[in-house]
From TrEMBL:
Residue ranges occupied by any LysM domain in the UniProt entry: 78-122
Protein name, per record: LysM domain-containing protein
Upper lineage: Eukaryota, Viridiplantae, Streptophyta, Embryophyta, Tracheophyta
Highest taxon of the lineage: Eukaryota
Species this chain originates from: Zingiber officinale
CDD domains, sorted: LysM
Pfam family, one: F-box-like
SUPFAM superfamilies with a match to the protein in the record: F-box domain (SSF81383), LysM domain (SSF54106)
Amino acid sequence: MCDFSIVVSGDLLRSIFERLPPSDLARSACVCRLWRDFASDREMKEKIFRSTWKVRRVLGEPSSSAFWRHPSLDRFAISHRLSRGDSVAGLALRYGVQVMDIKRLNNMMSEHGIYSRERLLIPINKLSLLIDSTCYIELDEHSKREVAVLYLEGGPDGKSTQTMNNTIYIKARRKILNSVKRSMQVDDGTAEYYLSTSDGDPRAAMLQLSEDLRWEQQNRPHLFR
């Protein structure tokens, strides 16, 4: 068998491996012992993972090296800390995802499961949300799976991480605003106003608008006397 340590230097081999997609890196580990050592290097796998998904930092250690090779966006999720008034339907609208996808990711049989939890994992359906983000590798107790979690307003301890996650939050906020604006058929200012009066809950914002329109219609004759 050819001695690859003679054919190519370690630095050059590392440089080549760093340009491989995760699936090809896994295959290269089967060629020889030297390639396996390089392909199994934790720093190497993380670097390729970050490059593939455009994330800036990965914190935490997965229980299996297969985590680094997972080819789908369902490896990632946004952590949403639950607060009073939250519902699965409302969160689906807020983040622009499907209700069933939230239930599936969080291993929920019904919406009643929301009341026994401190947070829900929200699926990520756009690669752009990952750009320049920090993700934390966690084993979620409810979903029973390892996920790379994004915290839009800070890290797991609630403290601010980096301004990069603020960019993700702004994008998500803009997405909510556009969704509410289309549903209400109003301008940005009106949508912003009703979102602010409803603590950012799109459903509550639309209900408030409906109530205001109903009141206006009922009282219009009196207003123009």
